[in-house]
Amino acid sequence: MLLACTVKAKQISFSKYPQDDHYVFKYQWLDYDKQTQSMSFSLTKAALFERFRMLKTYQSEFAQKSIMRDLRKQLRKQPLKGVQTIFLQQNGQTEIQIKGSEDKNVAFAYQQVNKLQQTLTTKYFRKNYYQLFTSNDQQTGIKVAHVSVANDSVADFKALKPVIMEKVAIENIRKVANYVLGFVQSIPYSPLESRITSSGAGFNPPAKLLWENQGDCDSKMTLTATILRALMPRIDMVMIYIDQHAFIGIAIPGEAGEMTIDYQGITYLLAEPTGPALYPLGALAPESELAVDQGRYIAEAFHSDGSY
User: Fold this and answer.
1) Distance (Å) of CA 184 to CA 30, 44, 86
2) To the nearest 5 percent, what fractions of the chain are helix, strand and coil?
3) What is the maximum span of the chain, computed from C-alpha positions, in angstroms?
4) Rounded-to-integer distance, Cα 25 and Cα 74, Å
5) What is the mean pLDDT of the chain?
6) In which band, very low, low, confident or very high, does the pLDDT at 308 lie, cut at 50, 70 and 90?
7) Contacts 24+ apart (CB under 8 A), 281-284
8) What is the average per-residue pLDDT within 21-46?
């Protein structure tokens, strides 16, 4: 979704080059006041090429095979007593049959297998940064676990804190947030594929987004949350999803006329990281504002765990 506004983000220049075990990134962009801003920082090659190497588009068939392989391995290590467990292939799907001389043992074994399968599915999703997602109109699918990606990216982005502190006083949260928003909004936008049906296709984790110098709204939201968390470790945030778009909320007081939401007892001031429209903190695109006013959104808390 391209956001309409009279002021458009503009990335004046972007470059990157290797330096030892890092890459140096250099940026220039126009901010909301049409002033030229610049920033230079480095990210490790491990952050760029290793951190989310496992992150791929979710594939149901591949996931089931992996989970069933782990289930079979677990049952070989710890067989269920009094029953025989059989794995059958039916129409490309793996089905489990349990046989035994006593019905109560068979029933109990099915319960144990179902419980183990749920545990292994949760483990598989967590390891591969997937999560079940239900949209505000009750459609379900698998999406990238953006909160987990942001959490696991923060350490790589701590190098930005002294760089940004030279530009903006870290004590002024609003100025910091607007500086980061302007930077992310100026990065070229790529359209979001359906969050429900794409299963994460097109998503770039924060470091990869910078490497490719482009990202969809989910990717830009995650990058923004990551940078803000690296700058302000104790600030609570929330990731907000509407149809074909995403933005963030920061737990700081709003001013008159600014957009906020209340979620789980906390008031969040809203922000649009996507671009190319330059919206300052507290202002949303008309489509986003309408969705919030009508309650057509899903929120996910991104709170500090104290480990940063």
Assistant:
1) 11, 20, 52
2) 35, 30, 35
3) 79
4) 46
5) 91
6) low
7) 281/174, 281/177, 281/178, 281/181, 281/250, 282/254, 282/255, 282/257, 282/258, 283/258, 283/259, 284/247, 284/259
8) 94
**What would you report as the CA-atom Rg of the chain, rounded to the nearest whole angstrom?**
23
The pLDDT score that the predictor gives to residue 34 is 87
Is residue 150 scored above 80 in pLDDT? yes
Residue in the block written with tokens 């467990």: 85
**How much is the pLDDT for 10?**
85
pLDDT at 4: 42
Which CATH number fits the domain 133-302, given the four candidates 3.10.620, 3.40.50, 3.30.160, 3.30.70? 3.10.620
Cβ–Cβ contacts within 10 Å for residue 88, how many? 9
Q: Would you kindly state where each structural domain of the chain is located, as residue ranges? A: 60-124, 133-302
75 CA to centre of own chain: 34
